Amino acid sequence: MPFLGSDWRAPGNVWVKNTGGWERIVALRENLNRHIKKLAHDRLLVKNWQLASEVDHSAKEWDASQDGDLTASPFWKSTKRPTFRKLSQYVFLPKGAGRERSQYFTIGEILLKLDFCSALHQLSRFQYVCRFVELVIQNHYSSLSGSAMKSLFGIVEEAVNVAIETKYNVNQVRSIIKTLIKALQINTKSYIGGKAGWNCHYHIAHVWLNQLNNVQYEERQDDGKPVLTDLPNECLRQIFRTMQDHCDITHTGEANKLLHGFSNEWNLWRDFCRFHFSEAHLAAAVPKNKPDYEIDWKKIYKKLRTRHGLNEVFADQLQLCCHCYCLFWGGGSHPCSIDIPLERGERAPEHRMARSRGISPRQLSDMFPLPR
Predict the structure, then answer these.
(1) CA distances (Å), 259 to each of 109, 181, 218, 361, in order?
(2) Structure pTM?
(3) Residue pLDDT, tens place only, 109-162
(4) 123 in Cβ contact with 167 (< 8 Å)
(5) H or E stretch covering 92
(6) Which of 8, 30, 51, 293 has a CA positioned 20 to 30 A from the CA of residue 312?
(7) Coil, strand, or helix at residue 260?
(8) Up-side HSE of residue 310: CA atoms within 13 Å toward CB?
(9) Signed CA dihedral, 343, 345, 347, 349: sign only
């Protein structure tokens, strides 16, 4: 039977008695993994040798054929095309809080297992990933490991490539690069990789910044097709109401005189204030005994934004399962432990009540302790 130490300061190793004496479970697992890898390596060598012989034989048949079509050979039809391994895009978090979470769960695992590089190619997840990466650079850059920093730079590079290719969210990616350069300037000492690694990262960050600054927007030619201003006024008002960033409203209003009038309507900024701020915040800033159309809601919005910040809203964000504490994307799924059958083939009685709640980038960043 296994032996467990009762001292809470012990490392918690499990010992098992075998023919040679007592041995740790960790050592047994290492030996077993080493043996499995050796068998897989030998089997792969045999498979490669058989594959090479079949390719040589099929090539000879192709040379001897009259049409010269290798795809018609039986080897080509039976061979599977190479596929890339798809990441699971979910990760199980350790329950509880404190040092246990920081010891057994790191930011590097979040960046790698949730596959943020693939999420950048989806427009609904782009802003969420950029916001979380920016918070990681601001708060946790000095405490990242080498693998986590490598994953971080890979995600930032992918964000730059997507922004240059699609010309969407260029300002947001440019803000991330500026934050990265500022973090590099602060962490010049004790940098992972030494001075050479710091120079390489500092140089490539400026290269990315120059690429984003050189992005050129092509003006649409007069092709006779409908434009934005051809829409009815109610449609234009509805488009302005769906905008989440005040900068988008201001920049759209600078296009022409018609859009400028819609961007300065008082009811637009009133709804904008009610969306981002609570009733208590508005009660302290809005003058009393005054009708809404006489209040400068745009000025009130600027004051409350500086004082309280904005309400962040994302089209798709990470979800946290309330039952198994698994972190996964909202549009995906995860192997919840509540769906595992019991001994008698039954399921848990509360399997229909397993819920999940949204996790904002700020909440996800706050799960990890700040570096001292």
Answers:
(1) 46, 37, 21, 33
(2) 0.68
(3) 888 888 888 889 888 889 999 999 999 999 999 888 888 898 999 999 999 999
(4) no
(5) strand 90-92
(6) 293
(7) helix
(8) 10
(9) negative
